[in-house]
Amino acid sequence: MSKRLADFLLTPAEMAAADSAAAESGINSYRLMEKAGAAVAAAALRLYPGARRFVVFCGPGNNGGDGYIVARLLQESGGQVDIFHLGNPEKLKGDAARARAAFVLKGQDIGRYEPQRGDVVIDGLFGAGLARDVPSEVADLIHKVGKAGTPVIAIDLPSGLDGRTGAVLGGAFRAAHTVTFMTRKPGHLLMPGRELCGTLEVFDIGIPARIIRAQTDGRVDENTPAAWRAVIPTEQVETHKYKRGHLVVFSGDASKTGAARMSAMAGLRAGAGLVTIAAPSEALSANSAHLTAIMLHAIDDAATLKGWLEDARLQTFVLGPGFGIGKKARKFVSLLRDRHLVLDADGISSFKDDPQALFDLFRGEPRLVLTPHDGEFARLFPDIAAEKRAGKVDKALAAAGRSNAVIIYKGADTVIASPDGRALINTNAPVWLATAGSGDVLAGIIGGLLAQGLPAFEAAAAGVWLHGEAGHRAGKGLTAEDLAAHVLPY
């Protein structure tokens, strides 16, 4: 099944290139602008039929041109409309100037806008192309609208948001509804952009699919099953537990065993054929009291682990949940350099003083998956984390390239990045996943998928998505134990 255009992600630059290519192919660009304006006007009338006044903010570019068309159509539909413009509208050019000329109502400077009861704002100031902080008069306007609680419909993207990164540039409208055209931008999915867009509507204004597809290589996309479904092992009648892989999860000491058990259970439920918890001898009793289907193996030190690893069937490991930070973790990781490893939590923090020592262990085909949240990311990649203008996708890709690892940069907009330049933005996680132990479950799911033979990037992406689905099944108020119990293989 071919991918729908609405499911593509194009950066603002790529979308601008698509607009230019459409015009060069002979498509009437003003007709495209009219269709865009009509879609926004229709949304305004559908969502706010009782509006007393539609207030249209028009900027100095084509987003403002869309705004003038919206204003004209709303007035023709019987609505009361007032226009407020940024800068001198006489300086508009091309299609935007034509759109303004077709609307006879005289506008006012945005500084003169005062909210009234029953207003609905149509935001046509900047759209997705903004790459600098909003000017002070726009920041003041955003504050005024927000303080009044006036509903906002954004054209393309709420003004003040970076369409490439989803970052706020000095201030941004909080839209109730956003209408964008042909495809989404990364800023629609990345936080805080996703939250500030409100409900998102993607409207097809008629640019041919071949033009849209020609502008993107698809290396940055949304994380959906389409990105990894093809590598999920098919169920076979003759399969057995060894064919489905053996996952090993390392446990901490006797007082810190719960995190490893949640990881192990999640790996088992994600489809691994066998799961073993490797624990210090003094932690065996604490673990065995809570385990049935998961095996136990005593590993007290690096020498014991080295001997166990002579069994070549042991290929996939999770290290970090409840393990403890320090020399022991670093030594264990060095012994696992030739295996598949999900390094999480304490495992990541153990390398904060010398991240390069970790990266140097895992060269060649990517087999290391790192799962940092913001703080852990900054410990491993302090210079990348400090880049002010870089977006989350940029940072995750830079980290993946440096470490030769698959990076799961966690958060409400988790990004999965591969050293080969691919990145996926995850959107299916419910807010109630932010609970203690949730990351331990995620590490186990990914380990279970790696054990079944999935490549590291696809295992990470599928794991993040399955983690989100488990959160929806478990529901609000979930605990990590609930979450692990709701993990299902794809």
UniProtKB/TrEMBL annotation:
K(+) binds at N63, D123, S159. Pfam families: Carb_kinase, YjeF_N. Residues 224-490 form the YjeF C-terminal domain. The keyword ATP-binding applies. The keyword rRNA-binding does not apply. Residues 15-213 form the YjeF N-terminal domain. It comes from the Bacteria. It catalyses: (6R)-NADPHX = (6S)-NADPHX; (6S)-NADHX + ADP = AMP + phosphate + NADH + H(+); (6R)-NADHX = (6S)-NADHX; (6S)-NADPHX + ADP = AMP + phosphate + NADPH + H(+). Bifunctional enzyme that catalyzes the epimerization of the S- and R-forms of NAD(P)HX and the dehydration of the S-form of NAD(P)HX at the expense of ADP, which is converted to AMP. This allows the repair of both epimers of NAD(P)HX, a damaged form of NAD(P)H that is a result of enzymatic or heat-dependent hydration. This is Bifunctional NAD(P)H-hydrate repair enzyme. It comes from Rhizobium mesosinicum.
